[in-house]
Design goal:
It is built from 19 helices and 16 strands. With 478 residues, it is of the alpha/beta class. It binds flavin-adenine dinucleotide and iron/sulfur cluster (SF4) (2 copies).
């Protein structure tokens, strides 16, 4: 009888790829998790019980066929595993690295629910596609036939790039416009290398180029090219511009030097790691080296800032968050990584103002307690009167979330409908906006979200754009 390859969770413990020790990883921006060895990946994949109704798949925004690629990995049939994995995910090795799996696929694995520790789905997904790259199985688009229609995509983040890939594979002429000098959106300039090494993103950009996607970089739509001109040039448009307006803080001293936005801080650090000259780092304005750093916020952006500050050689790094650890929005895994690297978390603390004359010297902190749950069920923080104190700081990084830029004003398109939060109104399934032939995907529709949702939106929008182009050419042929 053939040996049973699966259901090994009873005897095989859950195991993640090894993390590099904090003292070593603090010295560079390389990813902290090491690769699974082939034997380990097969062993971990074999823990899956091949559920008839796989909750992991239901809770993956891309509905990845997880049980099938786990079984194929356990059987050593990696090329087939890769084929299945890439059929539903444009960037599986990126999701394997940075999806908050504890809230998505892995958090809903039945083995986890039964107390055996989840199947390490993300690490296996990363392993499959990293191997595919090594073996040369990852191929650029080679459309069966070229089409005449062209699509202009504004924004080279995961939403725009996922759509570009789908459309190009169908032979559509695709041009992606971005105001940055490198494609990738937040994958390139937001998320630090210790979570996602940049060559992983750059090789994807090159693959898209090799497949015929045209990139027009350093081009801000609404400034360098008007939206109207872009629309006249292409048969359809996809808006995938993300959300970049940082939420701000007021209070006394809020205008002091040394109080900076998280996105500026992280972009500068990522640029430096590409080898660019970054005057704001050279001047010290966006550098944590030799400073007492306070980061305000409890989300993933705050976690990326504190860990970057550690790597830049800050004297101390503290993270202020107004709720407690249980109620923070950021990933618990990343918080643990930050604690291991020397970050101090100051829970139940909210900034009230800043000290210093010209240059910041501290943050005035109100101590909080958690009150009754609000409508969403989360406990609201309340100030404890008389418990204020000052936290010393010579660099304060505000990581309080992002909202959308005002696209109808910036692009002179009052007919582009937006929600009351400023996100673009798009049909939930087709991603069509209020303007004919204009679609939208990713954070600019959802508000600040996740890479995996941006990929899903981009893929769905590409399907709708193809329908739109097909209908238009059918009408023209009548
Ligand atoms: P973006 O990635 O923001 O890309 C939008 C692109 O549009 C940018 O390149 C921008 O330059 C371009 N653009 C904007 N306006 C114009 C214009 N007018 N003209 C031309 N180009 C324009 N998600 C995860 O799943 N896991 C994580 O670990 C994670 N960590 C994060 C860490 C940080 C610091 C941040 C800020 C976000 C993180 N996210 C994470 C969220 C994730 O990065 C986003 O949800 C995702 O990148 C959204 O994709 P997008 O394509 O919609 O937009
Ligand atoms: Fe899990 Fe994300 Fe991969 Fe889906 S894409 S299987 S949620 S890691
Ligand atoms: Fe396998 Fe867990 Fe998914 Fe079930 S829920 S198919 S055990 S990974």
């Amino acid at each position: 009888m053939a040996q049973q390859k699966m259901l090994k969770f009873v005897n095989v413990e859950r195991d993640m790829p090894q993390k590099r020790v904090p003292d070593l990883r603090k010295k560079d921006y390389d990813e902290i998790y090491q690769e699974f060895a082939a034997v380990k990946a097969e062993e971990q994949a074999s823990r899956c019980s091949q559920c008839g109704v796989p909750f992991c798949q239901t809770h993956c925004p891309l509905h990845n066929n997880i049980p099938d690629w786990l079984r194929l990995t356990a059987e050593g049939r990696l090329e087939e595993a890769y084929e299945i994995s890439q059929a539903t995910n444009t960037f599986p090795e990126i999701c394997g690295r940075i999806c908050p799996q504890d809230r998505l696929c892995e958090g809903n694995c039945v083995i986890e629910q039964s107390g055996h520790g989840t199947v390490t789905i993300g690490s296996v997904e990363k392993y499959i596609t990293d191997t595919a790259w090594e073996k040369g199985w990852v191929k650029a688009a080679k459309p069966f036939a070229e089409r005449d229609e062209s699509v202009g995509i504004i924004g080279a983040g995961p939403a725009g790039l996922a759509a570009a890939d789908m459309l190009r594979r169908q032979g559509v002429q695709v041009t992606v416009y971005d105001r940055y000098d490198r494609a990738g959106g937040l994958l390139t300039y937001g998320i630090p290398g210790f979570k996602l090494e940049k060559d992983v993103v750059m090789r994807r950009n090159k693959l898209l180029s090799d497949g015929g996607v045209e990139f027009v970089l350093n081009t801000n739509i609404g400034v360098d090219i008007s939206f109207a001109d872009l629309r006249a040039k292409h048969d359809a448009i996809l808006i995938g511009t993300g959300v970049y307006k940082s939420r701000d803080l007021g209070g006394p001293g809020a205008g002091n030097n040394g109080i900076v936005k998280a996105i500026d801080y992280l972009t500068a650090s990522n640029r430096l790691n590409f080898g660019d000259t970054v005057p704001e780092i050279e001047s010290g304005e966006l550098s944590a080296t030799g400073k007492k750093v306070v980061v305000i916020g409890g989300g993933d952006t705050a976690m990326d800032c504190v860990r970057t500050a550690i790597r830049q050689g800050a004297i101390s790094v503290k993270c202020l968050y107004r709720r407690d650890q249980k109620n923070m929005p950021g990933s618990q895994r990343e918080t643990q990584n930050a604690i291991e690297e020397g970050v101090e978390f100051v829970w139940l603390s909210a900034p009230k103002g800043f000290t210093g004359e010209g240059d910041v010297s501290g943050v005035v902190v109100s101590k909080m307690r958690l009150g009754a749950p609000d409508a969403s069920g989360r406990q609201s923080p309340e100030e404890i009167p008389g418990a204020d104190y000052t936290e010393d700081a010579d660099l304060v990084i505000k990581a309080l979330g992002f909202s959308p830029e005002e696209l109808p004003t910036l692009w002179d398109t009052p007919e582009l409908e937006v929600t009351r939060w400023g996100t673009v109104k798009a049909d939930f399934q087709t991603h069509a906006t209020s303007m004919d032939g204009v679609f939208a995907a990713g954070d600019i529709v959802r508000g600040a979200s996740l890479v995996v949702w941006a990929i899903r939106d981009g893929r769905e929008a590409a399907d709708s754009i193809l329908d739109y182009l097909n209908n238009a050419s059918a009408v023209a042929a009548e």
